[in-house]
Amino acid sequence: MLCGARAISRTSQKLSPCFSTHSGLWSRLMPDTFEPAKLDTVFVDKDPSKRPLENTPFVKNLFKGTFDKTMLVFPEVCSEEELADLEAMVEPIEKFFDNLDSTAMDREANIPDTVLETMKSLGLFGLQIPEEYGGLNLNATKFARIAEITGRDGGLSVTLAAHQSIGLKGILIAGTEEQKQKYLPSLASGEKLAAFCLTEPSSGSDAASIQTKAQLSPDGKQYLLNGSKIWISNGGIADIFTVFAKTPFKNQEGEVKDKVTAFIVERSFGGVTNGPPEDKLGIRGSNTCELHFDNTPVPVENVIGEVGGGFKLAMNILNGGRFSMGTSCAGALRKLVEKTMEHALTRKQFDKELIKFELIQQKFAKMAIAIYAMESMAYMTAGIIDAYQKPDASIEAAIVKVYSSENTWIVVSECLQILGGLGYMKSYPYERYLRDARILPIFEGTNEILRLYISLTGFDYVGKYYQDAVRKLNNPMNNLGFIWKQARLRYKERNVKKSTWLLHEHTHPLMESEANSLESYTKQLRSTVELLLARYKRDIVDQQMPLARVADVVSDLYGMTAVLARVSRSLSIGLPHCEHERRLAVAFCYDAGKRIEANLHELTLDVNKVGYNMDECHRMIADKMATEKGYFATSPLQRNW
Known about the structure:
Blueprint: H1 10-14, H2 23-29, H3 58-62, H4 80-98, H5 102-108, H6 113-121, H7 140-150, H8 154-167, H9 169-174, H10 177-189, E1 194-197, E2 213-216, E3 222-233, E4 240-250, E5 256-266, E6 272-274, E7 288-299, E8 303-304, H11 310-321, H12 324-346, E9 348-349, E10 352-353, H13 358-387, H14 394-419, H15 430-437, H16 447-473, H17 480-495, H18 512-536, H19 544-573, H20 578-604, H21 615-628
Parallel strand pairs: 1-4
Antiparallel strand pairs: 2-3, 3-7, 4-5, 5-8, 6-7, 9-10
Helix pairs in contact: 4-7, 7-12, 11-14, 12-13, 12-14, 13-14, 13-19, 13-20, 14-15, 14-16, 16-18, 16-19, 18-19, 18-20, 19-20
């Protein structure tokens, strides 16, 4: 799996010292003669050119029922010395964010210059820019750790993300050496800020439909850029823009068609204007506005990558930055849950502290489970990115974004609920956190689009693999041998209670039951994918409700994998609170299993039988509402005179 994986063998798992202070439980599970485990650790090579080129895409392979067992080893990408240096870097950043007046920035919808200057001095604008260009050259894992802190203020977090996660990322991954030398040093220092300009009034999630044009001048030396972009984070304060526009492109057949190209645009080029800052629901400190380009001259040397290759670049930029939302959300929630626990420990009702009420306890437990899963998936994904030269983790990053954004909204809402009326007041941070959290399922790809992306990317990956199988299944009389073999395989997988993949041998013994469930659900997913391909064939791309369920299934499978890998590591090396982690892991796997079972059940129902599946009913309700232009059921007070 990962170059930076800590190798945990079955033997070393049994040597875990985790329960050394809880001998009652541990002695019932393990012999007294066992000693602490000795684990070998191999770290990611600091020289990227010496890392393996590409990884086996984990989630994509789940679609065909293949499970990479090495993913059950949690990634280790930092040495003890690197971790110490990282925490030394975190300390002043944490102190800075703990003393921010986030309420004032939210109220005034502005980030003071003094705050921006301090952020520059802390190096926050050049976290992932290589050192030769003035940055800190943090890998994905270290960047995720910093995001835990910067996520505590929504406005600042978005400002930083718009600058480096997407604004300058195109230059980093596809820019020429000349472009990097010219732009990255001033962007790394924060002297100049960057923005990412893709969304337009007529194109939101459909990025390929943008209307901004870039026409090559007669002398071939520059492009003239014309068009408008909306909802651009940092749009009013940025100096450097990554702008996507359509340019004439001649294909191999000699046909000229408009294709998207990416450009580096400086405000100083002229013809760049912006509208007033948007008055937003949340993340109010960040600057968001409309941008206009009126015959803006852009030198041809400012094309990023290839002419006509802008759409692919835009997707690569967005796909690569989503993983950090997991730690950004988790870091913010840690602080908010801590504040909420303080209230629950001191607030009394009916002569009891709130924390002593079971329903309040359940809320805290579910919040902790969600945060644990966010962290596990985010750092697992960061580890994949760090371990390879050309990592394939786009689906994993999308899963992190969807899960973290939706559960952040739930956790913040529950924290506010525990505060009751106090949480609703602006003198407390809860209503601000709630407003800030609402943007998360919308930007960097709406969660609806990302669910389709997760499923369709997976189906496309296994399409050729299943193409021959589906053809044979649809022509059983001429493929009896193949049908019989597949039937025996499926029968064996459904009816043999004993594990055949032995995933439990790659997790801590205490997590054997959860590992066996993960194996069973992965096998069931394969059968379901085959069923859906046979049922819908090429029309699968239009079946959005089933596709969303499949996305939720693979997301929970990835979550279970990351959580099991993390807790196995914690148990095996005896980390503090490993018993608590085990409970979190057991609870997450239980809840994920229930969701997986429900989704797989819905996916396998006969869609042609009325009442078996609500998808068709939902479509009919929505179609009628569209005809009537809204909700139109007759009032319950009306009589048929």
